[in-house]
Amino acid sequence: MKMRRYAVLLGLLLIVGVVLSACGSGGSSEQGGSDNSFETAMVTDTGGIDDKSFNQSAWEGLTQFGGDNGLKEDAGYSYLQSNSASDYVTNLNRLVQSNTDLIFGIGFKLAEDIGTVADQHKDTHFAIVDSVVDKENVASIVFEEQQGSFLAGVAAAMKSESGKIGFVGGEESELIKKFEAGYVAGAKSVNKDIEVDVQYAGSFGAPDKGKLIASNMYNSGVDVIYHSAGGTGNGVFAQAKDLKNNNPEGNYWVIGVDRDQYEEGQIGDNNVTLTSMLKAVDVAVADVAKQSKDGEFPGGEIVSYGLKDDGINIAETNKDAYTEDIKAAVNEWKQKLVNGDVTAPSTDAELKEYQDSL
Amino acid sequence: MLDILYSLIPQTLFFAAPLIFTALGGVYSERSGVINIGLEGLMVIGAFAAVTFNLLYADALGAMTPWISLLVAMVASAVFSLLLAIPAITFRADQTVTGVAINMLALGFGVFMIKQIFNKGQTEFISEPIYTKDVPGLVDIPVIGDMFFNNMYITSYIAIALSFVAWYVLFKTPFGLRIRAVGEHPMAADTNGIKVYTTRYIAVIISGALAGIGGGVFAMTISLNFSVSTIAGQGFMAIAAVIFGKWNPLGAMGAALFFGFAQSLSVVGSSIPLLENVPQVYLLIAPYVLTILALAGFIGRSVAPKASGVPYIKGSR
Hints:
The complex is a heterodimer of chains A (358) and B (317). With 358 residues, chain A is an alpha/beta fold.
């Protein structure tokens, strides 16, 4: 009796399994899509498409591109969210299998996995943002963050009354070094004797550490902090806002990164966000998608966006803090950078050379 | 030297406050015989509830918002902790596995709800966070005033005061004795007429409430928003503090303060004359090295409550 009951259960289970798997395959064969239309998609890193940072910006770019070309979400352009680093390869492969023509990997953390998947699927086009992958079917989109950071440094040095400014980085890496070197060079160009306190939190997701560092910097007399630290930067904002709340007249400024962080700095009628270094990932993503659609995919190339093509810029939203003086100085240096009179350093060695030349 | 203390002590206190609350919760749960690996998840729920409530009701409640948000966080986490209590106590499930499940569920639930409520993957910054304040009167005391009462979060004081209350309740009241009894020898407690299941339920709910406050304090003083990475490891640090503090509320508080001190030392270190030439990477790993050294050498044997992790089955020997 007992045996028979188990047999019935097993049978039922099998039926359910068959029915469900039939549903599954039915769905995916429809999703395959036709080959004559252009399909593009992006894989986010762990930030997700509303991370208020480059994932969001990239998605805005892709949406923009879709709108311009009459594509619809999920039928022309789409995204897959990665919840952990182990999702990258899975997500990339899923997109390859659904015949996506161009796949964006957002963020340098995907570089290695894009390389692997690109080797396995030579017919699919890939693009990596913020890193370089040297493969025939991969376009590498990089930004000249050192230029924007240079201008952030100019603004910081103009704003600082104490002669001490700070930089908070996430993880120490080649990429974040570009921010640091540019920033220091910009500040020193305005004020040769300015002191720049550079600290790394060791993580992009540790607001508590960011707050500790900011608290320590403001205590030691720093009045402008430029952060390039993702979620860790939230702690910098938290500390600046707290100090500003207790002392509305005090000088506690934050320079945002990647997108305009004006909103994050709002506290009552004051705002601690002096300016932000803007990185137009959306412009770059839309641009590369368009090139690819037109059959001019820049495979194997490094596509660089800087001040010249509005890939990099500096925010002017905080009208009270970002005074005309600062604006004038920033624009003057911006012109020099665009003309090539000055080259913003992007490594420690270049920075040293630049400082010696001042 | 004094300058360094002026920045070290307030930083230690704000860093440690969320850990203290959560660790106190851990002490209660484990003392009653239920291992609470789910502290991280309970903190997530606390942070989620506090931030969501704060964003939705800041306009209506004004300056009171953060405090009511904390209450909401406390209640939400206490309710959520039932998801640990019911399987672990009534159904005698493996407590470690249940705790891990709580951690995964809480994060998924939080992010999913944010998506439903705000249609975003992470929230905006809250407009009514908890701000630091000077303590009137005490701040004027020379030296000590600047060190302990200048620009401080009131939550840090509450955390420390609560540690003493928690210690008193656990070691000086009949209720505390019952909690310890069911954690050490539930059968003996049962034969003496103590309701083992009820006591354990209460202890787990207390731990949920305290971890919820911990998460809420973290969100409203440090991160100011809620996202998938807001609570990243603080719950596990609290568990470490429980063990480090030998399952004693005051010990757990001391351990949490020690973690805060080590973290803030790693940041301030670069401006201390003696340490300024040490490469930054050594300062960054210092908190973890100090913790290992402290655990390995200085505190002696740390023994868990005897019945911790063992489900109680009535009538079994």
